[in-house]
Amino acid sequence: MGEPRVDTAPRISDEVRKTTCYMCACRCGINVHMKSGKVAYIEGNRDHPINKGVLCAKGSAGIMQHNSPARLRAPLRRTGPRGSGEFEEITWEEALETAVSWLKPLRETTPEKLAFFTGRDQSQSFTGWWAQQYGTPNFAAHGGFCSVNMAAAGIYTMGGAFWEFGTPDWEHAKLFVLFGVAEDHDSNPIKMGIGRLKARGAKIIGVNPVRSGYNAVADDWVGITPGTDGLLILSLVHCLLKAGRIDLDYLSRFTDAPVLLDGDPKSDTHGLFLRDEDGKPLVVDRRTGRPAAFDTPGIRPDLAGHIRRAGVTHVTVMSGLAETYLSDAYAPEAVADRCGLTPARIRALAAEIARAAFDDPVVLDRPWTDFRGERHAQMVGRPVAFHAMRGISAHSNGFQTCRALHLLQILIGAVETPGGMRFKPPYPKPATAHPKPHAEAVPGQPLKGAHLGYPQGPADLALGPDGTALRIDKAFTWENPLSAHGLMHMVISNAVAGDPYRIDTLFLYMANMAWNSSMNTKGVMEMLTRTDDSGDYVIPRIIYSDAYSSEMVAYADLVLPDTTYLERHDCISLLDRPISEPGAAADAIRWPVVEPDRDVRGFQSVLLDLGARLGLPGMVDGDGAPLYADYADYMINHERKPGIGPLSGWRLGKHGLQHGRGDPNGGQIESYIANGGFHAMHIPADAQYFKPWNMVYQDWAVEHGLMDAPTPYLFTLYAEPLRRFQMAAEGKGNHQPPDHLRDRIRDCLTPLPVWYPPSDGATDADFPIHALTQRPMAMYHSWGSQNAWLRQIHGHNPLYVPTALMQAHDLRDGDWVRVTSPHGEITVPVLEMAALNPHTVWTWNAIGKRKGAWALDPDAPEATRGYLLNHLIHELLPPKGDGLRWSNSDPVTGQAAWFDLRVRIAKATPPQEARPQTGRQASPVPQPPDSLRWQVRD
Known about the structure:
The chain has 23 helices and 35 strands. The protein is of the alpha/beta class. A hairpin with a 2-residue loop joins strand 27 (651-653) and strand 28. The strands form eleven sheets. The chain has a seven-stranded mixed sheet, with helices on one face. It has a six-stranded mixed sheet with strand order 31-33-32-35-30-34. The longest helix has 18 residues, at 92-109.
């Protein structure tokens, strides 16, 4: 008998359709292999600029997401009590007419009574535009409980931030330092970048209380105490200043370090920049000793410059900075214990940063010209790259901690220089280039501008004439002045409390607020079902759109079922959150590689339909007919301003197709599809670095529609907007804060970064342990943990406990503990972890599920051994005895302070299931089979 013939390369598809992944926020390019019209296999697209063919477990498992039994099948109308999950299927016409009957009267009378908030969607420029045209001030996305501290701190300090706005220079960095990077964000590019660093012999240092993921492959791990990152960073600044290891040339040329400050305490501009008649900040020219505008051609700004006027000496930002951080209060010996480190460890880290930055700089022979007209023969860089994310930002001191990290980067000249951090177009751009927030609702009219923005002082706050908040989440108020992403975690509790007012309709998209996207999960579930004295729900109407039978679906009155990401058009736009890399401005699309087999519609197309039915400006023509047939039509034909639309590629110019600026092109989407689902505009080599000051880049950005005019600017070590709020707290100006907030504003909104202890209201004696929750690399949001393949990686989540605490509480792997915070209690299984800060416990987020949700079996491990730390966290701090309930948020931006949580643990008798249990919701989708199995045949 002969050997059997085995086909070692079977044909897995008869067609490949290229689109964009949505199993996390990386937006990788994927090849979707089709067989007989069905999805057979998903792999990475090797031509894509983000992942270059690499695809993680999440991306490959997209096939299971697309075929999930939890997918909603048709619009739903609630028939049972909220939270029960009891619905009836209705037609789209019924659903849309119901929504219009609720929304139209509100727009005509009190548009602010619609609160429209979206979760982890990637079309916020569109959803925000829709809400603006409706006229409600109450719009934001999930950034307020995710990463607004990182985004706002970066933009206010240097015109861009980590992750979506900037990335390490993987090709030239020689030292890479991570602070609190979430493993579910940007994971493929970071993993690829770490691989390139290791191949070149670069060193990687992870600063994180938990050694998992990226920190596990780092060469060195700094197991810091949660919430003390800012203190460590400012101690590093102290060491570098004391050793003289800072980039003086970079600071004098490209930052506000040489800018003069008004030193007269009696002045109305005390502590602000001295400016010329044109409003330009003044510096002292080293050659003349005289003050001049910062951008004067040929000037040599003096870091130690000073002038004397009317008996008052005015010194530079650098002088104040040095005086502040050379204080012994920031010496390693003064901060080490609080950081959980030794003084020697801090000094060694500072020395390592200094060696990498200054002993072996990167020099590229690329001449370039700066904004003062000076020609530079080379591009010289400091090869130290930092990267940070939610781990340092989700604290009540997160904004200033993020600013401190940017201060450190800038002091050593490692931003927008070879080997450091590089911006991704459309960034960099200063905070002053962004809009200011708009919140004044007028019945029947659009808002006058964007909801979200970057205030420059008290006059920009979203307050009514009587000082009350105009937004339901109290964004842009004295409580949270710089809340650039809104406060999604406060919407429900504020609405229920009627503070600042009641709402009529809560409209949510892909935001699982009844579960893992809320602090105080059980309390939020109760608030969503709370009734008034007449028995009516306190939040009268809830509309929700999701693709799956999530926990939040059960609390909706009307459900608008979304498609999966393989069944719809999406726009990953330069107007929003593009896929750019430092060397190219890039955007991308998704398109329906398969048609839905259920009665579902893409949410963006549904919004356009609703907008047309409501007669919203920009969505109907002069006769009231819809302007756009669907979202794809909008992607092609919508323009924010002449020549600028959602997609930058293949636009129409006078001489044919062009990129960046141009008229709408009816074949644009087909061009994207033919190119693999993306478009990239590559930046010239001599514009790749020093972008905020490089005139070749500035002119290129204008030509390609990223800005209207060249806008060079200085990095702001000293944040004037914060100083303006401080001045108000000191009693200066026409806009004054409430008395009970004056001390907080003065102490927390300092123009130079400051560290203050984070707190969730717990005391060290009663709650001595820090507790963290982070997302696993194999999951993203709650929808990942219903995926049949990914569930095999994370079917449930133990509480990871350090060895010393395991021993102190006589615990073994698999034992159960009762975990108590000032806000609640859970009972969960434990697992020992040695590579963990000794005063910290942690677990994976979003693994636990409510019974009946996501079409999982009620006895699935996610529902019996999975759990959320969210039950222990409250959106409000415990009462302080002052009659007020303070938000559990950063006082600058309002970001949810998830990681301030403090707990105690005690060994518990093993229960049958993790506690608390929140009851079982009915499922609006059929009970799934015990196993998912199908075969795609020839």
